[in-house]
Amino acid sequence: MPQLNGGGGDDLGANDEMIPFKHEGEQDEKIQENAFTERDLADLKSSLVNESEINQSPNVTAPGAVRRGQQGYQRVYSDKHRDALDEVSKHQDGGLYKAPAYSGYPFLMLPDAYLPNGSMSPSSNKVSVVQQSHGMHPLTPLLPYSNDHLNPSPAHLPADINQKPGIHRHQSQDLSGFYSLPPGGVGQIPPSMGWFSHSLMLGPSGMHPTGIPHPAIVPSTGKHEHDQYDRNMYSKPHQQAKQEKEPKKPVIKKPLNAFMLYMKEMRAKVIAECTLKESAAINQILGRKWHALTREEQAKYYELARKERQLHMQLYPSWSARDNYGKKKRRKREKQQDSNSDPGSPKKCRARFGLNQQTDWCGPCR
DNA sequence: AAACCTTTGAAGAAT
DNA sequence: ATTCTTCAAAGGTTT
User: Fold this and answer.
1) Which stretches does UniProt call biased (Gly residues) (predicted)?
2) CB A221 within 8 A of CB A248
3) In chain A, at which end, N or C, are there fewer CB atoms within 10 A of the end residue's CB?
4) Which fold, A2-95+256-340?
5) Chain A 307..346 CB hits on strand B (< 7 A)
């Protein structure tokens, strides 16, 4: 597993690269924060892109170039964070899910109101990840994993679930510990979690046998997936009716990566601060805030993402990211691909000239 | 109505 | 082994 790559030795070079960027990010952050509070919002919006270009990559003029440059940096950067994460994991794997920072993470995002009995608030374990204070969607991706949903009666579950062939991807003790219930919690997650460990067990519209939709599963309608998901959350009968109408095969979405989890948590906060609503702009801010995070702060999300992937893998052993390839139709990308596939358009400008010589890149690459 | 935009990270495909 | 592509979320914008 890539994220477990101990990184083969934390080369100090990584740190050397990390530091300047981080400072840069912090500066940006300060600027950004000031912008939120002092700058006219319209100015902020209009200057957002320019500002980011100036701050992040002075040599770059085109947004696309920013993207490319960052991609080049990205891998190194992510590797470094994996290193950081590994460091954290080294500390946490032994006790992470038995305690502290992340124990019961899936429940962390759960408003107390959703907690079993309403009494077992994991507040003591809450990390800053908690979202409701920002008006975030209370039902985060991991909500369905909560014991609130596990609770509702294993009686609903097929008796032979754990005996289903092909779903015996080894159950990591790590994971079962990770999703362990609070002491005194009502339900107990079966060690195997096999009761909902295969997509085949899901209804036509991605409903869990318990009636709780898994966040990674959406009806394959393409558009308005999220709306449907939200409706599924709150209107069960309606959903059931729809379930009958839609024999379509459910789409299992990719598990969220660290940054996506971070975005999900922070989006509402950023929107509240700057009143921007345009996701593209918000995401730019979030990207910069992400870089401004400390390693430890980021490590939290890498760890959460790792658990997400683990659980996703257990829930849908046969799922592959490839399954969703081609589900989205592209308009512009195709053009870009065409230009890239052009024999006269060298794809490897970045590799050839490096990020510091982007002026030597061909037009499309710039 | 559907794709785009914009971000980072993970996975898979391609080279 | 390295590079490239696609998708994950989100919601206003563009086509």
Assistant:
1) 1-11
2) yes
3) N
4) DNA Binding (I), subunit A (1.10.30)
5) 309, 320-322, 325, 328-334
* Residue the block writes with tokens 């592959």: A320
**Total length of chain A:** 366
Residues paired with residue A133 on neighbouring β-strands, in sequence order: none
> What are the CA-CA distances from residue A234 to residues A116, A206, A230, A237, A246 (Å)?
17, 15, 7, 9, 18
pLDDT, one tens digit per residue, over A209-258 is 444 456 677 765 434 343 333 333 333 344 444 444 545 677 899 999 99
In the predicted structure, residue A25 carries a pLDDT above the cut 60:
no
Domain boundaries, chain A: 2-95+256-340, 112-168+194-215+217-252
Q: Can you tell me the distance from the alpha carbon of A143 to that of A109, in angstroms, rounded to the nearest whole number? A: 7
Q: How far is the CA of A63 from the C1' of B5 (A)?
A: 11
If we measure between CA atoms, which residue out of A189, A154, A149, A160 comes closest to residue A173? A189
Of A160-169, A182-191, A285-294, A326-335, minimum mean pLDDT range: A182-191
Q: What is the Cα–Cα distance from A320 to A338, expressed in whole angstroms? A: 27
CB under 7 Å from strand C: A 71, 137, 215-216, 218, 225-226, 251, 253-254, 256-257, 259-260, 263-264, 267, 277-280, 283, 321, 324-328, 330, 333, 337, 340, 347-348, 350-351
Structure tokens at A247: 């024999």
Percent of chain A predicted with pLDDT > 70: 23
Question: How many other C-beta atoms can be found within 10 angstroms of the C-beta atom of residue A104?
Answer: 22
Q: Is the CB of A80 under 7 A from strand B?
A: no
